[in-house]
Amino acid sequence: MTADKHLQSWQERFEMAEAMQPLLGKLYRNQGVEVVLYGKPLLNASTIEIIKSHRLVRRHVGDKLRLRESFPFVEALSKLAVKQCKVDIGKLAINYWREHSDASQVEAYMSQALASAIDHDDNQQARDVVLYGFGRIGRLLARLLIERTGVSNKLCLRAIVLRGGRKGDLEKRASLLRRDSVHGPFNGSVEVDEENNAIIANGTYIQVIYANSPDEIDYTKYGINDALVVDNTGIWKDEAGLGLHLKSNGATKVLLTAPAKGAIKNIVYGVNENDILDEDTIVSAASCTTNAITPVLKAVNDKYGIVNGHVETIHSYTNDQNLIDNYHSADRRGRSAPLNMVITETGAAKAVSKALPVLEGKLTGNAIRVPTPNVSMAIISLNLNGETNKQDMNEYLRNVALCSELQNQVDFTESTEIVSSDLVGSRYAGVVDSQATIAEGNRTILYVWYDNEFGYSCQVVGVMQKMLGLHYQSLPVA
C-alpha cells in the first residue's frame, strides 16, 4: 500500500509538470514572460527538471512547495496580460500559501503582485546581434539566444562571423553547435543551408559570414542593421582593435567577452551595468572570474566592509593551453593541461575594482589551472571591518541569493556532496558553497563555484540587453 501511494504521488507530480510546460512556453513566446522558480528557469525545462526545481524550494526557505500549489499561479499568469518580464512563481506561491488556505484568491493576488507588468506598453524594438567568433563562448551565446526565439524576442541572432571558409567548414560549425562534450546536445534541431551559407537552428536563420578582418564586412547586405557585434575571439582588446568593428556597415556597438584594455568599461552585470551609457559604443563584459567574484564581494562589502583580501582561482583548463607539452609564450602554460595543475596569473582580482571601485587596491589574486574542462572555483580570503561567524555569514549570503538585487548573479548551496561537475550549466555568475565557509571575528574565507563558460555567457547576455536598452522587470520585487 505504501509503495502504491508513493507511485501515485509521483504520477500526479509528473502530470502536473507536463501540464505546466505548454503554458510556460506560450508565456515566453507570446508575451515575453520568463517564468522561474526561486531563480531556476522553467523555460524549456523538462518534466523532471520542473519537479526537481520544486524540491529545492524547501532547502531555500524551509517550506515545501508542491506542484499542485504552484500550478494555479502558472495558470493565473497565463490569463493575465503580463508582458516582457521575469516572474518567480515560487516566491509568489510561498508568500500566498503562508497567508491563505485555498486557491480562490490566486488570480486577484497575482493581479496585484504583477500590476506593473500588466498591459505594459512594450515599445522596445527587436535588435540585431552578430557573434564575431564561434568558439566556446560564441556557441553558448548562440544557444542562449536561440532558446529565447519567439515573437516577443528582442535579441535576434542574425549572423556569425568566422575566418576560413574551407570546404566542409559550415557543416563542422553546425556539428559543434549540435553536440558539446561538456554541455551536452543542443536542445532542438540544427540544419545547414549550404547554398546560402547559413545555419538554421530551431527556426532561427543565422547567416554565416567569412571574413579576415572586422572592417571588411557590410552587414547591410544581409539585412542586418544597427547591430551589436559580440566579439568572442579575444584577438582585439583595446579601442583601436575593437573599433574596427564599427567601420563595418550595419554595426553600431561592440561587446568584448574578455577583459578590455585602456578606458573601455568593464561591466559585471548586476553590479555596474548602469555605468553603460547610450553613447558607449565599445564595452567589455570582463572575465568569467571577475563576474563570479564581484557580486559576492559587493554583497560582503555592503554589509561588513572589506579591509583587504586575496582571491585564489582554481580554474578549469582553457583553449589557450596545450593538450601535450609544447611551446607557449606564457610561463608554465606550455605544459600539458589535462595532466597538470598549472600555476598562472590572473588579473581578475585587480579587475574587480573596475566594476567596484570601492575595492581599488584591496585585493590580490592568483590562479591554478586544473585538469577539468569546465567549472571553476574562487577561494576568497577577506579581512573585514565588522565581525561575523559562519552561521551569520551564510545566512546573509543565502538571503542575498534569494531576495536581493544580486539574486540573478549569486546562488547558494548547502549540499555536503556537491562537486564541480554538478555545476555544469549553472546560470549564475557564482555559487556560494556554504559548507566550506570559514568565518570568525573579522576574517572570512568563502568558496564560490562558477561555470566559467555557461554562467559567464548568461552574464554576457545581460550586458547585451543593457547595451541595447532592453529592460525586463523581475517580479516580485526583491
From TrEMBL:
<protein>
    <submittedName>
        <fullName>Glyceraldehyde-3-phosphate dehydrogenase</fullName>
    </submittedName>
</protein>
<dbReference type="GO" id="GO:0016620">
    <property type="term" value="F:oxidoreductase activity, acting on the aldehyde or oxo group of donors, NAD or NADP as acceptor"/>
</dbReference>
<dbReference type="Pfam" id="PF00044">
    <property type="entry name" value="Gp_dh_N"/>
</dbReference>
<dbReference type="Pfam" id="PF02800">
    <property type="entry name" value="Gp_dh_C"/>
</dbReference>
<dbReference type="InterPro" id="IPR020831">
    <property type="entry name" value="GlycerAld/Erythrose_P_DH"/>
</dbReference>
<feature type="domain" description="Glyceraldehyde 3-phosphate dehydrogenase NAD(P) binding">
    <location>
        <begin position="127"/>
        <end position="288"/>
    </location>
</feature>
<dbReference type="InterPro" id="IPR020829">
    <property type="entry name" value="GlycerAld_3-P_DH_cat"/>
</dbReference>
<comment type="similarity">
    <text>Belongs to the glyceraldehyde-3-phosphate dehydrogenase family.</text>
</comment>
<dbReference type="GO" id="GO:0051287">
    <property type="term" value="F:NAD binding"/>
</dbReference>
<dbReference type="InterPro" id="IPR036291">
    <property type="entry name" value="NAD(P)-bd_dom_sf"/>
</dbReference>
<dbReference type="InterPro" id="IPR020828">
    <property type="entry name" value="GlycerAld_3-P_DH_NAD(P)-bd"/>
</dbReference>
<keyword id="KW-0560">Oxidoreductase</keyword>
<dbReference type="InterPro" id="IPR020830">
    <property type="entry name" value="GlycerAld_3-P_DH_AS"/>
</dbReference>
